[in-house]
Amino acid sequence: MQIKQFCFLAALLLFAVSARADYQLDNDSSDFNFISVKKNKIAEVHTFGQLSGVINGNGDASVTINLVTVNTHIEIRDERLRALLFETNTFPTAVVSTRLDMAKLKVLQSGDAIVMPVSLRINLHGKTKVLDANLRVVRLSDQSLLVTTVKPILLNSVDFDLSEGIQKLMEIAKLPSISTAVPVTFSLLFKSQ
């Protein structure tokens, strides 16, 4: 009888610890992308190389994007985005935060998915904007969660004081237009610690 009680208590303790565990973002298995459109018809996908983030036991989630690691696959364009658009000397990071419903996540079995409506708080270029979005959360295992956008999230450059930077990019690259609405998608893998 004591063995059964011990096993039950051990299982209960493990569940309690995993239920309160923080999840850390796995940078190597995560992506944060945005699409730019120039000349009204040329769309290109860009990404960031360094992300960090956490989901705590209360469901508070945040992801920090190192803007210095922007990757457009053209080095001179990366340099221009850092200097003229993001102004990474002053604003080296962007932060996206939200709250996930942990009660719903705790009951997910491996392979289960749920779509969660959330309010994303986006801090970029010294400005903060709250946008509604739907995120898909997939429990891959007892120790990992995959969080993705259900559909692209549209950021407007005006909301983050990026219009002047876009104008500078147009001038230096001699482009007639660069879209001020930017679709953003992400696929973020979190592992429990």
Task: Give descriptors for this structure.
elongated, 8-stranded antiparallel beta barrel, 46% strand, Lipocalin, 12 strands, 193 residues, alpha+beta
Which helices and strands appear, and what pairs or packs with what?
Elements: H1 2-20, E1 23-25, E2 31-38, E3 42-48, E4 51-55, E5 60-66, E6 70-71, H2 75-86, E7 93-99, H3 102-106, E8 113-124, E9 127-141, E10 144-149, E11 153-156, H4 163-173, E12 181-192
Antiparallel strand pairs: 1-4, 1-12, 2-3, 2-12, 3-6, 4-5, 5-7, 7-8, 8-9, 9-10, 10-12, 11-12
Helix pairs in contact: 2-4
Verbal overview:
- The protein is of the alpha+beta class.
- The protein has a single domain (22-192), classed as Lipid/polyisoprenoid-binding, YceI-like (Lipocalin), CATH 2.40.128.110.
- The protein is 24% helix and 46% strand.
- The chain is built from 4 helices and 12 strands.
- Helix 2 (75-86) runs antiparallel to helix 4.
- It is elongated, with a radius of gyration of 20 Å.
- The model is unreliable at 6-20 (pLDDT under 50).
